[in-house]
TrEMBL record, chain A:
GO terms for cellular component: plasma membrane. It comes from the Bacteria. It is a multi-pass membrane protein. This is Peptide/nickel transport system permease protein. It comes from Tistlia consotensis USBA 355. Keywords: Cell membrane, Membrane, Peptide transport, Protein transport, Transmembrane, Transmembrane helix, Transport. Its main location: membrane.
Automatic annotation (TrEMBL), chain B:
This is Peptide/nickel transport system ATP-binding protein. Keywords: ATP-binding, Nucleotide-binding, Transport. Belongs to the ABC transporter superfamily. It holds the Pfam family ABC_tran. The keyword Mitochondrion does not apply.
Length: 305, 260
């Protein structure tokens, strides 16, 4: 067994890999090793993994149906038999609602990640690579979006499109892309005048191939770092929209919505708002720590390679 | 007709409202299979001439033709010119900046073939291996990243890349100035050998007379964007130099030449 792991390690760290896949896996392995050297980032990764696992196994972890009301037991404090985190104003189990809330949060996070950074990256690299008029038009557009306060713009979108979690995600994505465009453009500007891009142009590569295959991968690490650092903010905006009643709609167990409904009981039944609040806090912290660690691993300037 | 023809070439860069005239009207012609050198101190515009010839710098006035064709304006939408790419390639000065940091040697060498639709997967594999062998690197280098290579090895990869499309003209922008002396000789010998084997035409820029003398049949001395003097190798060997500027450059380079 140990000799098998040892031979895997030699294969991964080989100075002269024999295939594309081996070379790529070797690089990924080195990145993983440097992440392992950073305990804080590992903690962040553990929290994010915990969120994912909780979302996947929510039906197994929850002790109650998150929507089942039991008015006889409403506002039971933590430690009550059968409800170890207590219940809310309808007698719903807070632990189960928090566990199912992980699904909603993860859904929001994944949808935003799948849209805003991709769009921002495309706009930013195109602006940076082509320059001139393309740059001016795209970046002024970005500036306009950037000038709006994020929550207010999201509010306006939701108000126009109607409340709901899908529209909340769309609104967040629409307000979240400009920073990615900025980051991607800045990275592209440092890359576009390099000799290797010139060499690729000279080889007759089209602009599409250079931007997607050669410029974007170099912007990707800063964008990924930016995503993980932004994630906390995105979760908070989603929670804020939920809190204002414009995001997730009752009775969906969304953390922001749960805080909103717990607000009325904050002084006497503190746990109703505190439990989802702690969940938001821990997950945001996890993404932030992971982002800091990834910056050390992925940023080619800080790494020794 | 000459293969490379430059007539009245001017290159003007606009920098913060100020026009910088990097090349101020030069005429030059290079015959097929000739090896021509451009010498001058830094800032004399010699590299700009190369960049203008392949479309990396703007031709503000005059002509810069290779095989009777003007260079494409690179970096714009729809500016790709595949036929030009298969005729002219360039080797850059800094081997640390001319290879994509996240691409393996294999990708660097096989992508041009892919873009130009040359050969299937197996044929590409074969040509990548052959190209590595041609520049004196064994197959173990194929899947390495640039940061796993030395400066000389990187420059060999850059030469191999430039030759992947089998161009007839190679523009060399101080290909050895970033390398240490022993590696410099290896790369120069490699270039000479490849030129002989493939019948290439070289246009080479250097600030080093010794390098140009080793590589080139004829040379032009540049100063402040103009050509001061054109010499052939014999004239250089005899010291039959007309201009004072050339004499000063020559003296400076001989002062630094190793004792033999």
């Amino acid at each position: 067994m140990s000799s098998a792991t040892a031979s895997w390690r030699t294969w991964l760290t080989s100075r002269s890999p024999r295939s594309r896949r081996q070379a790529w896996l070797g690089q990924a392995y080195l990145g993983w090793l440097s992440l392992l050297r950073n305990p804080v980032a590992l903690l962040g990764l553990a929290i994010v993994l915990l969120l994912v696992l909780t979302a996947i196994f929510a039906p197994l972890l929850a002790t109650h149906d998150p929507l089942a009301q039991d008015l006889a037991k409403r506002l039971s404090p933590p430690g009550t038999a059968g409800h170890w985190l207590g219940t809310d104003e309808f007698g719903r189990d807070l632990w189960s609602r928090m566990v199912y809330g992980a699904r909603v949060t993860l859904y929001i996070v994944l949808l935003v990640v799948a849209t805003a950074p991709v769009f921002g990256l495309a706009i930013g690299t195109a602006a940076g690579y082509f320059g001139g008029l393309v740059d001016v038009v795209l970046m002024r557009l970005t500036d306009i979006f950037l000038a709006f306060p994020r929550l207010i713009l999201a509010l306006a979108f939701v108000a126009a499109l109607g409340p709901g979690i899908g529209n909340a995600v769309l609104a967040i994505a629409l307000t979240a892309w400009p920073p990615y465009a900025r980051v991607a453009r800045a990275e592209t500007l440092t890359v576009r005048n390099s000799d290797y891009i010139a060499a690729e142009q000279l080889q007759g590569f089209g602009a599409w191939r250079i931007v997607t295959g050669h410029v974007m991968p170099l912007c990707l690490s800063s964008v990924i770092v930016r995503i993980t650092l932004d994630m906390a903010g995105i979760i908070l905006v989603a929670a804020g929209l939920g809190f204002l009643g414009l995001g997730a709609q009752p009775p969906l167990p969304e953390w922001g919505l749960m805080i909103s409904s717990g607000r009325k009981y904050l002084f006497d039944q503190w746990w109703v708002a505190t439990v989802p609040g702690l969940a938001i806090f821990v997950v945001s912290l996890g993404f932030n720590l992971l982002g800091d660690g990834l910056r050390d691993v992925l940023d080619p300037r800080s790494a020794s390679r | 007709m000459a293969l490379i023809e430059i007539a009245g070439l001017e290159v003007v860069f606009a920098a913060r409202g100020e026009a910088v005239r990097a090349v101020r009207g030069i005429d030059l012609s290079v015959e097929p299979r000739e090896s021509f050198g451009l010498v001058g101190e830094s800032g004399s515009g010699k590299s700009t001439v190369l960049r203008a010839l392949c479309g990396l710098a703007p031709v503000s006035a005059g002509r810069a033709l290779i095989d009777g064709r003007a260079p494409p304006a690179l970096g714009r939408i729809g500016s790709r010119d595949r036929a030009f790419a298969r005729r002219v390639q360039m080797v850059f000065q800094d081997p640390y900046g001319s290879l994509h940091p996240r691409h393996t040697v294999d990708r660097v060498l096989s992508e041009p073939l892919l873009v130009h639709g040359l050969g299937g997967r197996r044929e590409r594999d074969r040509r990548v291996e052959a190209a590595l062998q041609d520049v004196g690197l064994d197959a173990s280098f194929r899947f390495r990243y640039p940061h796993q290579l030395s400066g000389g090895q990187r420059q060999r990869v850059a030469v191999a890349r430039a030759l992947m499309l089998e161009p007839s003209v190679l523009l060399l922008d101080e290909p050895t100035s970033a390398l240490d002396a022993s590696v410099q000789a290896e790369v120069l010998n490699l270039l000479s050998r490849l030129r002989e084997e493939r019948g290439l035409t070289f246009l080479m820029v250097s600030h080093d007379f010794a390098v140009i003398d080793h590589m080139c049949d004829r040379l032009a001395v540049m100063q402040q964007g103009r050509i001061v003097e054109v010499l052939d190798r014999e004239a250089l060997a005899r010291g039959a130099v007309r201009e004072d500027y050339t004499r000063a450059l020559l003296a400076a380079s001989q002062a630094h030449a190793p004792v033999q």
